[in-house]
Amino acid sequence: MRSLGFLALGFCAALNAQPQDTIHHQLTVLLDPATSRIEVTDTVTLPASLGRDDIAFALNANLAIDNSPRDLQRLGVEPLQASQGINETGGLAAQRAKYTVDLARRSQTLELSYTGTLFDPTQQSGAQYSQSFAETSGLIDPRGVYLNRGSAWIPEFGDALVTFELSVAFAESAAAWSSLSQGERLAPNVWRSDQPMEEVYLIAAAFTEYSAVYKSVLDATDNARSVDVLALLRSPDANLAATYLDATQRYLALYEPLLGAYPFTKFALVENFWETGYGMPSFTLLGEKIIRFPFIITSSYPHEILHNWWGNGVYPDYATGNWSEGLTAYLADHLFQEVEGGGPAYRKEMLARYKNAVSASADFPLSEFTSRNSAATQAVGYGKSLMLWHMLRLEIGDALFLEGLRAFYREAQFTRASFEDIERIFSRVAERDLAPFFAQWVQRRGAPELALSVAEERGDKARLNFAQVQEQEPFEFTVTAALYYSCLLYTSPSPRDRQKS
């Protein structure tokens, strides 16, 4: 097995230009956790490509629009649907009401004011999946606030990516609270992202904040780009905060040379009021018990930091398969095992989980994986996907594998990318057509089943037969075989030993 000596390679990624068809939200929010109430004013700037007449959007059905935009019509409530994203495990999104509206003449802005209560109690959505955390489509609670895309707390205009500026205020009973979202903090409780996002998060509680500064290892000058490193805890704990602040800086210093510049101006560890393991753009939301498990620092935590490159820096095109979980697991969970010599055992465990958890009726191709909600979906979307990335690395070699990852990150940053995009970029980097490789492992379900037999033995010779024995068509792949043998060496006794005998 080749070692991961590529860790020492450096690279500085150039950011993509912002897509033209993003939607910008200028949000002013008032939260009252005691009553689960929210008041929002949103000035939405829409791209010209949407036109100005009969523009459709959806909003949480519990939120009432207070102002009267031109020709606003409420069309009814949409059917409930599953939430989608790297943090979802099959839970339902909030009930959405659908609207249409016309914009004022020669204007691409829409002013909306709306109020309501948001409180969806947390519950475990995947009973058969023992590792599932409790989920909610969003709640405003005296213990804290959690709002995401599944909450539909800001108007949604299809699947368009969004930029935003968010200013948060609190009712008097929560005067000591603070908020967190993606992007850069412009002032206390004011957040802005000029980078296109899939959704807008709003997290709030009575946090104690700890901070440090990470200086990018990609620029060793005194003016090196810096990243704010934060720990937001629900109760003061300077030692715990210091542990995570130090770990964050170590992992950023590890991954930047490997993949490219960290894409945000901050990374925050945020303690949640129920047990979660979420990775968001520029922060992670971990449960109060989880963050105190000592093994999390070297397992789940680097995984969530790495999601800022894969999943929150380049977005999966979920309609064609979520590739990000397998890649993140390969470059985090698996990587740390491999540098300690445990890579083969880790991969063997992934293969065993696939064999044990994925029956013929439960199997599906990687192109259909969106999120895990069972042992079978985890075995496919994490384990089989991890093996795809490992086989790709072996197929083209370490140097080209890293070059492909860097090119992918550089070219697809803050856009949705598919397996087809990955295939195109790696084929270009490797200067060979990798379409058959990706078609086989992404579009097909199942995996090879190998049988080994000794067909003939004669003296010191034997014929070994390898065969694929699965019911479906054969797969094309390379099998590495290692032969171990022993021999008995006879040493003639010395003359003195012969005399003694």
Short descriptors:
alpha+beta, single chain, 10 helices, 25% helix, 7-stranded mixed β-sheet, globular
Ends distance: 49 Å
Main β-sheet description: 7 strands, mixed
Structure summary, number of beta strands: 25
Oligomer: single chain
- Helix residue percentage: 10-25%
Q: What integer is the average pLDDT?
A: 90
Strand content: 25-35%
- Characterize the overall form: globular
> Helix tally?
10
Evaluate the radius of gyration: 27 Å
Characterization of the model:
This protein is an alpha+beta fold and 501 residues long. The chain is 25% helix and 28% strand. The chain contains 10 helices and 25 strands. The strands form 7 sheets. A 7-stranded mixed beta sheet has the order 4-7-2-1-12-15-14, with no helix packed on it. The protein has a 5-stranded mixed beta sheet with strand order 17-18-19-21-20, covered by helices on one side. Strand 24 (450-458) and strand 25 (461-468) form a beta hairpin. Helix 3 (324-331) runs parallel beside helix 4 (333-339) and helix 7 (398-412) crosses helix 8 (419-430). It is globular and about 105 Å long. The chain starts with 22 loop residues before the first strand and ends with a helix. Residues 1-19 have low confidence and may be disordered.
